[in-house]
Structure formats: C-alpha cells, structure tokens
Amino acid sequence: MAEYERTLHVSADPDRVFAFVADVSNLPKYLPVMDSARAEDDGPVVVEERAAGRDETARGHIMADAQTRRMEWGADADRHYQGWLQVTTADAGASDAGKEADVTVHLSFSPRPQVHGGLANGDADEKGTIERQMDQTLQKIKRHVEAMRA
C-alpha cells in the first residue's frame, strides 16, 4: 500500500474550513480533475472528472463528521483508493483573528497508485507527483476559505 500525507495552515475558523470541504458541491472547487460532484439519495457520491484525457463518471462514498472535523472517502472497490481529511485547530499564537486551522489530507492506494488524471504515472517521480497534487488541492482550499473571510 502506498500512503501519502500533507498538511497546510489555513487562516480561518476550523469549523468554517470543514464546512467548506465537506460540502460535496464544493469538491470541484479544490480537486484538480473533478468537473462536478453530487450526493445521491441512497448515499453514494457521483463525480464527473477528466482523467487521462477522457471524461469519466465515478461512484464512491464520503463520510463527514462535523464534530471531529474529519472526512473519509473511497472509490469503488476495484479502484483501491481511499483517503481522509482532518481539520484541526491550529496554534494561532498571539493572533487577534481567533481560531485558525490546520488541514491534513491523507491518501492510500492499494497496491500502488494508478494512472488517473495525471495524479501518478508509476515512474520514479510518482511520490513527488502525488504530493504536488495534494499541495495544489490544499492551496485551493486555503484560497477559497480565506477569500470567504474577506
């Protein structure tokens, strides 16, 4: 199993950060290959994405717990992919802005990442490619949530 994890500080209230990331309709705002996302009444999440130069529809699940500010997800069993995102209260120091957040995202691929939207291509730079994508995702979350505060 391949595991990847990245964390970024966000200058915003942790509850507001979590509310943004846990809203399924916001997924395309911060995930690089996703065009749309919707939760179906029976629980699955359906996403439209452009991966490896072609349009795809994927089904998966997302579980969000606002009390712990943790979101977990996974793709259909044949994709061998899962992850979680945790929003924690950061030490804002002497800031008068109040609470701030740290956002951690963790991805697991079993047995290894597959070609998917440029996320990984199996070459020697696989880890760097995945971590760059994760950093870009975290930066998008940061920009959206901090802009909402302004």
What does this protein structure show overall?
The protein has 150 residues and is of the alpha+beta class. The protein has a single domain (2-31, 61-149), classed as 2-Layer Sandwich (Alpha-D-Glucose-1,6-Bisphosphate, Chain A, domain 4), CATH 3.30.530.20. The chain is 25% helix and 40% strand. The chain has three helices and seven strands. The chain has helices at 14-22, 27-30, 126-149; strands at 2-10, 34-39, 45-51, 54-65, 70-75, 81-90, 100-109. It has a seven-stranded antiparallel sheet. A hairpin with a 5-residue loop joins strand 2 and strand 3. The longest helix has 24 residues, at 126-149. It is globular, with a radius of gyration of 16 Å. It starts with a strand and ends with a helix. The relative contact order is 0.26. Residues 115-124 have low confidence and may be disordered.
Provide the gyration radius in Å: 16 Å
Number of helices: 3
Number of β-strand runs:
7
Strand arrangement in the largest pleated sheet: 1-7-6-5-4-3-2
Low-confidence stretches: 115-124
Which tags fit this structure?
150 residues, alpha+beta, Alpha-D-Glucose-1,6-Bisphosphate, Chain A, domain 4, 3 helices, 40% strand
Walk me through the topology.
Blueprint: E1 2-10, H1 14-22, H2 27-30, E2 34-39, E3 45-51, E4 54-65, E5 70-75, E6 81-90, E7 100-109, H3 126-149
Antiparallel strand pairs: 1-7, 2-3, 3-4, 4-5, 5-6, 6-7
Question: Concise description?
Answer:
By secondary structure, this protein is of the alpha+beta class.
